[in-house]
């Protein structure tokens, strides 16, 4: 991803492209594979991989601004932990609770034959299959 794309992501998220935000955005989006993370795990990774120090509030606000702008999706694990995903397309997940790891499942690999009708006054927004793993 070019630097201009990073700046565009920040601006479309309503964020001023400060040095710290640019570095967070590069860390999230300049990669070949999907990246799943919690705000806390991202903070630890940034501490290890970069020379800058980041306030947890800066990371939190940046991540949530990216989510609001549609650049990240949010995945809740049984109401206990919130992960963010750089893959915003419709897809499913395996969850390895022993390693606290989300693993993508391509939406074409899951076949759903019947879906119940939504309750009155509601529409189905999307369907997510979430498969818990154990050793």
Q: Structural class of the helix and strand makeup?
A: alpha+beta
What is the radius of gyration computed over CA atoms, rounded to a whole number of angstroms? Answer: 17 Å
If you average the pLDDT, what whole number results?
A: 90
Shape category = globular
Write out the strand line-up for the largest beta sheet, numbering strands in chain order.
1-3-2
Strand content: 15-25%
CATH architecture: Orthogonal Bundle
Largest sheet: 3 strands, antiparallel
CATH evolutionary superfamily: Winged helix-like DNA-binding domain superfamily/Winged helix DNA-binding domain
CATH class: Mainly Alpha
Distance between the first and last residues' Cα: 37 Å
In the CATH hierarchy, the third-tier topology is known as: Arc Repressor Mutant, subunit A
Which secondary structure elements does this structure contain, and how are they paired or packed?
Elements: H1 3-12, H2 19-29, E1 36-37, H3 39-49, H4 56-68, E2 73-77, E3 81-85, E4 92-96, E5 101-105, E6 130-133
Helix pairs in contact: 1-2, 3-4
List keywords for this structure.
135 residues; three-stranded mixed sheet; three-stranded antiparallel sheet; alpha+beta; 33% helix; Arc Repressor Mutant, subunit A; 4 helices
What does this structure look like?
The structure is a single chain. With 135 residues, this protein is an alpha+beta fold. It has one domain: Arc Repressor Mutant, subunit A. The protein is 33% helix and 19% strand. The protein contains 4 helices and 6 strands, in the order ααβααβββββ. The strands form 2 sheets. It has a 3-stranded antiparallel sheet with strand order 1-3-2. Strands 5-4-6 form a 3-stranded mixed sheet, with no helix packed on it. Strand 2 and strand 3 form a beta hairpin.
């Amino acid at each position: 991803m070019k630097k201009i794309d990073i700046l565009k992501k920040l601006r479309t998220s309503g964020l001023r492209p400060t040095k710290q935000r640019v570095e967070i955005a590069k860390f999230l989006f300049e990669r070949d594979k999907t990246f799943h993370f919690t705000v806390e795990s991202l903070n630890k990774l940034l501490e290890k991989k970069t020379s800058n120090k980041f306030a947890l509030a800066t990371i939190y606000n940046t991540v949530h601004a990216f989510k609001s702008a549609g650049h990240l999706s949010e995945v809740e694990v049984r109401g206990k932990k919130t992960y963010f995903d750089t893959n915003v397309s419709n897809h499913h997940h395996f969850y390895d609770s022993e390693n606290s790891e989300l693993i993508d499942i391509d939406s074409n690999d899951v076949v759903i034959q019947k879906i119940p009708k939504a309750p009155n006054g509601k529409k189905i927004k999307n369907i997510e299959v979430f498969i818990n793993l154990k050793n």
